[in-house]
Design goal:
- With 414 residues, this protein is mainly alpha-helical.
- The chain folds into 2 domains: 180 residues, no CATH class; 148 residues, no CATH class.
- Helix content is 53%, strand content 7%.
- It is built from 15 helices and 9 strands.
- The strands form 4 sheets. Strands 1-3-2 form a 3-stranded antiparallel beta sheet. The chain has a two-stranded antiparallel ribbon with strand order 4-5.
- Strand 4 and strand 5 form a beta hairpin.
- The N and C termini lie far apart (89 Å).
- The protein binds zinc ion.
- The site of zinc ion (ZN) has 7 residues, from helix 11.
């Protein structure tokens, strides 16, 4: 079956079979998606004439990767293995600039830039797919779109020809895996040993993305990244006071053993539960104790902050002070549990936290602050219902009493 050339050929060099000619690297990263990333950074660095911003959030947004720590790991590894160089300008917070290492041989650099142009220039093989959420890791991914792009440009091909064409940048198993994936999802078809895009491959991609809710995921990812950024700036750039406080706390005495300077800052409630940088939640800690607390917290169940809490307090209660006192008492229970290894106390601290945190949160953090500082992947605690007006409680008690009385009276009559 002959396929029309849907994508007008780009400016890529072609080999004798009409395939785009990929540079042959002396060494490249162990994984295909990492190769794509180096090429991406090389291309943009070359275009801009300076290193490019590629924090894990940038990469998450551009390559639609869901897992932030996976991206950080990948970037660190690429730097360690000498494929990238990272620069962190001291003056700008949260700005990591990546480029090819100064020590990389010129010929190798040229190869990376060449691959980057082939893939990512406006006329490049991946250019038309750049806004697709299925570019995301775990879905069609850049290597899947590349396979499709070549089939669109060069017409139907056998698996063998495809593997040959891609061999410099992708292992043959990866090429086969991507062909299988595209075929399973009706984006590509296999007929008489020849792969070609299906008639409605564009619709098939959209169907796949809908079925996997990738668009929703994309919107959610953008929202999460924006919230994380806000929180980051709040904590660092916007919160000069917090930075100063942390510095001060590190010079203080460890709240457990008194070591001075403590050297670290711990959070209670732990960040793993719900805590964040807030002056009232940070304490001086030595590295040893901080590490112990960290592993204890990991071994405990995570408190449930979703269930609504009803508290009745005397009307004259200063809720904010009460919440701070309650939090401090939970902290003491936790410290005592950690010191003695008493599981009962540690569990008590978890269950007390379930009422302490919502009360603390909603009395210390305004709605507007909450929008800005709360990372979206954390669950905001349900707002507690605090009954300070005793007439309501008395009203409820009275109605309960009267219904009981009614029952009793009916019982007597019957
Ligand atoms: Zn200590």
């Amino acid at each position: 079956m002959i396929n029309p050339v849907i994508n007008p050929p780009g400016n890529a060099p072609k080999d004798t079979d009409g395939f785009p000619q990929f540079p042959e690297f002396g060494s490249k990263p162990g994984r295909p998606d990492w190769t794509f990333l180096v090429a991406y950074i090389a291309f943009h660095e070359h275009q801009k004439g300076e290193k490019v911003s590629a924090s894990r959030r940038d990469i998450q947004q551009r390559f639609r990767r869901g897992n932030g720590s996976g991206v950080s790991k990948m970037l660190r590894r690429l730097v360690k293995d000498g494929f990238l160089e990272v620069e962190h300008p001291e003056l700008a917070t949260h700005a990591y600039l990546y480029g090819l290492p100064a020590a990389m041989p010129v010929e190798e650099k040229e190869q990376w830039i060449e691959l980057g142009e082939l893939l990512f220039s406006p006329k490049g093989l991946l250019g038309r797919f750049r806004t697709h959420p299925s570019l995301k890791h775990g879905h069609i991914m850049p290597n899947g779109f590349l396979v499709l792009a070549i089939l669109l440009e060069c017409g139907s091909q056998s698996a063998l020809e495809m593997k040959k064409a891609m061999k410099h940048i992708m292992h043959r198993n990866t090429t086969q895996g991507r062909l299988d994936f595209l075929t399973e999802n009706d984006i590509v078809q296999l007929e008489d040993g020849q792969y070609s895009p299906t008639e409605d491959w564009e619709q098939a991609i959209i169907r796949y993305e809908r079925a996997n809710s990738l668009e929703t995921f994309d919107i959610e990812l953008k929202r999460r990244i924006a919230a994380e950024r806000c929180r980051y700036y709040e904590a660092l750039a916007g919160g000069a006071d917090l930075v100063a406080l942390k510095k001060f706390l590190r010079t203080g005495s460890c709240i457990e053993c008194g070591e001075k300077p403590a050297g670290q800052v711990e959070h209670f409630p732990p960040k793993l539960w719900l805590g964040f940088d807030h002056p009232d939640l940070m304490h001086s800690a030595c590295p040893g104790d901080n590490e112990d607390w960290g592993s204890i917290v990991k071994s405990l169940r995570r408190p449930n902050f979703d269930k609504p809490i009803v508290m009745s307090l005397p009307i004259e209660t200063d809720i904010k002070r009460f919440a701070a006192t309650l939090m401090a008492s939970v902290h003491r229970i936790f410290l005592e549990g950690a010191r003695t290894g008493d599981m009962g106390l540690l569990e008590l601290s978890v269950s007390r936290m379930e009422s302490a945190w919502p009360l603390w949160y909603w009395s210390h953090i305004t709605e507007e602050q909450s929008q800005r500082i709360h990372p979206a992947d954390y669950v905001r605690p349900a707002k507690p219902v605090v009954l300070t007006d005793w007439s309501i409680v008395e009203g409820i008690a009275k109605s309960v009493e009267s219904s009981r009385k009614l029952k009793r009276d009916r019982g007597r009559r019957g």
